[in-house]
Amino acid sequence: MQSTEADAGARASRKAAVETNKLAKRLHRQVGQAIGDFNMIEPGDKVMVCLSGGKDSYALLDVLLGLRARAPVAFDVVAVNLDQRQPGFPEHVLPEYLAARGVPFHIERQDTYSIVKRLIPEGQTMCSLCSRLRRGILYRVASELGATKIALGHHRDDMVATLLMNMFFGARMKGMPPKLVSDDGRHVVIRPLAYVAESDLERWAQVRGFPIIPCNLCGSQVNLQRAQIKQMLREWERRYPGRIDNMAAAMGRITPSHLMDRDLHPFTTLQATGVAHAEGDKAFDDDACSDVYTEQRLPIARSPAGEPAAR
Ligand code: SF4
Q1: Of 24, 30, 130, 160, whose CB neighbour count within 10 A is largest?
Q2: What is the band of 62 on the pLDDT scale with cuts at 50, 70, 90?
Q3: pTM value?
Q4: CB distance 39 to 73 below 8 Å
């Protein structure tokens, strides 16, 4: 009996080790792929990794260090934390972690918390001003440290959620780019976790035992819109696995001729060419009777006479 239990325990731990190994490989492969696809890191770069103490930025630093150890290109990493003087922030956690890992680091202490508290009336959201202040400070620190790239820990799910938020609440198809030039025009910001699923980062944080710092120290309310979108994405993913991946992939495969932005496609001057296109419209429109017009799926509004009502 005892040996059966011991065997089961051994099998479970072998299985867990295999899963962890797969996860490690996937994370390194996806980050390496994103870096390559968007030419995020070049030889001689000094990459400033912004470390908040959350799971995503810990994982970013961890995977970048792993890749650097075997990368064909030589680059430096410096970790930077902006201590915004939020009440209860455990100042010792990040320096101890970084020193133990032998990572060069810089802790920038700036009391943006008091500024934000003073300027934003009670009950209103502080995030916009807070993140603007943080961005400015991080850009300055990057210049002072001679960093050529600023790496942020946003991941695939953040990018998809941002796209949906901009569509739902901003009426704009705009996401979160994997690489961009900073607002001051002086830095290149990169998001090497662009292909990584949040669920993998959660598991990796457990595997690696990162000393996570809680993210509610500022006392700001959760962004309800973002929380709703994330919940919706999680629910979709649960019911239709792979959906988030498809949405993320779609951001890299855009067909301007099948959207409605007149600046991206010359709709107003389109003329028949007289030449058949091998793929034509059919390459994209395989659901001519889309759900919107299909009675069985979504009842069409009808006039009293039973005719479809004018829309
Ligand atoms: S959640 Fe808090 S720390 Fe984060 S941006 Fe908002 S106010 Fe700033």
Answers
A1: 160
A2: very high
A3: 0.87
A4: no
